[in-house]
Amino acid sequence: MCGICGHSGQADPGVLERMLSRLIHRGPDEDGRYREPAVSLGIRRLRVIDPAGGRQPVHNETGSVIAVMNGELYNYRELRTELQQKGHRFASQSDTEILVHLYEEEGERGVHKLRGMFGFALWDRDRRRLLLVRDRLGIKPLYYAALPDADGTARVAFASELPALLQGLPAPRIRAQAIADYFTYLYIPGPETIYEGIHELKPGEWLSVEQGRWQLERYWTPEPTTQMPRWTRRDDATEHLHGVLRDTVRTHLVSDVPLGLFLSGGLDSATLLAFMSQVAGGRIKTFSIGYDEPADASYNELETAGRLARHFGTDHVEERVRPDVSTLLPSVVRGMAEPFADSCAIPTYLISQVARRTVTVALSGIGGDELFGGYPRYVGMRSAALYQRVPATIRRWTGYHLAPWISEGAGGRDPFGRIRRFLADGAEPLATQYVRWMTFIPREWGPRAFNEDWLAASGVRGAERERCDRFERWPSSVPSARAAGFDLQTYLPDDLLRMGDRMSMRHSLELRVPYCDHVLLGFAQSLPEHLKLSRWRLKGFFRDAVRALLPSDVVDGPKYGFRIPLARWLRQDLRPMVHDLLTESSLKERGYMNPAYVRWLLAEHETGRRNFADQIYALLVMELWERERVGSSIGAR
């Protein structure tokens, strides 16, 4: 795992050095550079494959192709053998060197042979061509921006993280649309960023810059394949799942440094552990965290994780934490580098910190829910499709008159909150319903949650229609399949994978996500939706398929994950911080939100009438991010 950066064209040599200085946490072990008048490439390396010999940048035999990469190629040994048989000579045992020889052989189309997670930059010296490539599902990040030249052509600067890229750019403007999207979804949807003119490569996309000409191309999309069999016998599908999972886990264990697993006690990480125990040599290292406060006992998965560790005989580390949240939160915000309000970033930060004490690489269960039907909203989509058969007048009456009387319980993620939202939106098209289930501006406020003058001046528009179109474009007529397809393109890369990458790399820990392997995804997409949600159960097929491998209480247990007691923290531990930061004056200074809306959120939450933890946390993160941004700008001057 590494951090890469660079630019095409000429620039002050200090630019590359400043960019590299902001990537040390991603690659603390060594750095490397390649410079010529037409391009500069930089790398900060975390040694994982070929620690002694895998220095970057890498070159082909003649030095005409040069590359730097952030990520891992899990099939590099097979590709190396294939390329050697075609006459290519290798100077190291590293996976990155595959890129330059594969490019020699097949050009950019060679990316289709790669199995792994990656963001890489490749310079073709003969063609004067810079190629930037991001992996299929967006596991590894790669940001870029255009730099106009005096002759009217465009250069490009790129980096693995925004703070590094900013070192090579004039001070950018904040995007108003990104602010609105952030408060609506808790993250900023890619490929846009918080800054004007700075973009992230889409998953499965490359950018080619050749003699000032740009070309963006999507080389892969996660659309369902027609090449996989349509399973008619459950036993055949189960057998195939075991084979694909075993192979996927085996490939993800390729490492020349210590490796472990984030163990939450839930089905996804437990299944990874079961297959790791089949293919890994030696005792597996597992890591779990919980909370010391008795009031937070329901957020602990330590007991179940501990039983799993004993069942499989792992070298298990569990840590009960009493984090100083007011001190921890600024570090989390700084690590994400742009506003990001999924509070799971906090436990991901903490468990990464714990794991890095003993390993350099860790596996995580991110992606299992999207592949195999693990979110309650997927069952909700199936139910909504049936509810569409009820006359629209009845659905409208129910949404208007009955839904407001249903208590939200602990909030929108509580069963009562879900029922209320289901009925409130029941008269809308399915796409609209699903998009609204994924938003966080309360219905009773809508656009009024934002500052009216700011909305009028900024030209912000609602993103609901565009997201509904994306839902409807997924090539399936099955609503739950469309929902999962929507998540594969939005929530997974822009929230979960972004969070996993940034929080692990803050501690120089490489995080691998086997469920985001494109081969495993191909199998999952070959499963009919009625099989995935068999008998209306979340992960119905998946649970049955792994039942013989795991303790029954894990297979049939509730959904776990690295959760935090955020609602209580905001009412107690973080309450002074909330009121210190979200003052009338600070809200007016930022100008984004309606102060009356913020006062209402705080009053409803702190009295316990409603749970607005997500919305308040988003406000808190934004204020911390703004202060960090201003502080960094002053420091840079």
Keywords:
44% helix; single chain; six-stranded antiparallel β-sheet; 15% strand; 637 residues
Give an overview of the whole structure.
Helices cover 44% and strands 15% of the residues. It has 637 residues and is an alpha+beta fold. A hairpin with a 2-residue loop joins strand 11 and strand 12 (213-218). Strands 2-3-1-9-8-10 form a six-stranded antiparallel sheet. The protein is built from 28 helices and 17 strands.
Rg result: 24 Å
Cα separation of the termini: 31 Å
> What low-confidence regions span 5 or more consecutive residues with pLDDT below 50?
none
* Average pLDDT over all residues: 91
Please count the helical segments: 28
Strand order of the largest sheet: 2-3-1-9-8-10
Overall shape: it is globular
Number of strands: 17
Query: What portion of residues is helical?
Result: 40-55%
Task: Look at the helices and sheets and give the structural class.
Answer: alpha+beta
* Major sheet characteristics: 6 strands, antiparallel
Beta-strand residue fraction: 15-25%
Summarize the structure.
This protein has 637 residues and is an alpha+beta fold.
Question: Could you outline the blueprint of secondary structure elements for this entry?
Answer:
Blueprint: E1 2-8, H1 13-21, E2 30-36, E3 39-45, E4 58-59, E5 65-73, H2 76-85, H3 97-106, E6 116-124, E7 129-134, E8 143-148, E9 154-159, H4 162-166, H5 176-185, E10 198-200, E11 205-210, E12 213-218, H6 234-252, E13 259-262, H7 267-279, E14 285-291, H8 302-312, E15 315-321, H9 325-336, H10 345-355, E16 361-363, H11 368-372, H12 376-387, H13 392-402, H14 415-424, H15 430-437, H16 452-458, H17 464-473, H18 479-489, H19 491-505, E17 510-512, H20 518-526, H21 529-532, H22 540-546, H23 552-555, H24 566-571, H25 575-581, H26 584-590, H27 595-606, H28 613-636
Parallel strand pairs: 13-14, 13-16, 14-15, 16-17
Antiparallel strand pairs: 1-3, 1-9, 2-3, 4-5, 5-6, 6-7, 7-11, 8-9, 8-10, 11-12
Helix pairs in contact: 2-3, 6-7, 6-20, 6-22, 9-28, 10-19, 12-15, 12-18, 13-14, 15-17, 17-18, 18-19, 27-28
